[in-house]
Amino acid sequence: MGEKRAYKARKSGGGRKKLKPEYDAGKNMKEQMDAAVALYDSEMSLQTIGEELGLNPIKVRKLLITAGVYESEVAEKVQDADGKSACSCDNADGI
Fold first, then answer.
1. Most-buried pick from 3, 5, 22, 75 (CB within 10 A)?
2. CA 38, CA 30: separation in Å to the nearest integer?
3. How big is the CA angle at 53 (ends 49 and 58), to the nearest 5 degrees?
4. Is the dihedral of CA 82, 61, 37, 33 positive or negative?
5. For the chain, how far is it from start to end, CA to CA, in angstroms?
6. 83: which DSSP letter?
């Protein structure tokens, strides 16, 4: 068929460059979660918290469930299911 070429090691730092190198999803989620918990502790509704943070109320609920401060039957079922958090579910109401 043909001769095999010798293995040539790649240079480090190759690959696709990040569009936003300063972006950190984990850090952003932690900040959103902390802000949502603080507002929830001041007895604001999920709708009001969502408006304040620019998030959907369902996303606010997921953040609060993940933080362990929001409780409901659905939240308990989600937490019990394989020990996963609600953020890994797209539709927590469908359980």
1. 75
2. 12
3. 60
4. positive
5. 57
6. T
pLDDT at 63 over 80: yes
The label of the residue with tokens 């979660």 reads 33
Query: In this structure, which amino acid lies at residue 84?
Result: K
| Model pLDDT, residue 48 | 97
d(CA 33, CA 40) in angstroms, rounded, equals 10
| Alpha carbon distances (Å) from 48 to 38, 67, 83, 93 | 13, 18, 29, 20
Spell 5-26 as b/e; 16+ CB within 10 A means b.
Answer: eeeeeeeeeeeeeeeeeeeeee
pTM: 0.60
C-alpha to C-alpha distances, 4 to 1, 52, 59, 73, 95, nearest whole angstrom: 9, 62, 54, 62, 55
